[in-house]
Specification:
This protein has a seven-stranded mixed β-sheet, sandwiched between helices. A two-stranded antiparallel ribbon has the order 1-2. 23% of the residues lie in helices and 28% in strands. The N terminus is likely disordered. The longest helix is centred in the middle third of the chain and has 13 residues.
């Protein structure tokens, strides 16, 4: 899942995430007050989608810890071909489906499941872009990356975005992955990897 200016307001109302660009540019999507939910900030999101600028159109996208859906909705707004949003919290998964319906986004699906459990199954399709932004310090990021590789979820030359606490060791990232981009912002590290040799 994904601290943003979109956190719960002082009035106790839900916050929102803003879609930066594409067909739904400027749309605000509500974010529920769910423990551990920290939508990716606009600044980080903008950097990520600058990195993906030439690859996002028509791509098949997997959002592993979807949370607010901020990353997947941004990808869909920028004309990704299809997106799978995996979210463990059942109420949040329903909210994501409602948002997709409100946007007439038929090129997406919401999977209400624990991400590591879901990725432990045989791959249902291969993904060209994978977004991995789990709750911090819960030992989710590296196992997720390993399952993506082991389970055959990645297409050739896939791009994997990984957002973690900056102190997380990366020694167990799949050996075949190559680091393309990396930035540190406060306590946050975000990186783009590829499976290409």
């Amino acid at each position: 899942m994904k601290q943003a200016k979109t956190a719960k307001s002082k009035t106790g109302q839900p916050g929102f995430v803003r879609i930066i660009s594409g067909q739904w540019r400027g749309r605000r999507l509500p974010v529920a007050d769910v423990t551990g939910l920290r939508p990716t900030t606009d600044r980080v999101k903008e950097t990520l989608f600058n990195w993906l600028m030439h690859d996002i159109s028509d791509s098949i996208v997997l959002d592993c810890f979807s949370g607010s859906g901020a990353l997947a909705f941004e990808a869909l707004s920028r004309y990704a071909g299809f997106a799978t949003l995996v979210e463990k919290d059942s109420a949040q998964a329903k909210r994501l489906q409602t948002l997709l319906t409100s946007l007439n986004a038929s090129q997406a699906e919401v999977i209400n499941n624990d991400c590591l459990r879901y990725l432990s199954q045989p791959a249902s399709r291969q993904y060209q872009i994978v977004l991995v932004d789990p709750p911090f310090r819960q030992n989710l990021a590296i196992p997720c990356c390993q399952l993506l590789e082991q389970g055959g979820w990645l297409s050739a030359n896939a791009l994997i975005y990984l957002e973690t606490e900056k102190e997380l060791p990366l020694t167990e990232i799949p050996a075949t992955w190559q680091l393309l981009k990396e930035k540190i912002a406060g306590q946050l590290a975000y990186r783009l990897w590829t499976t290409s040799s």
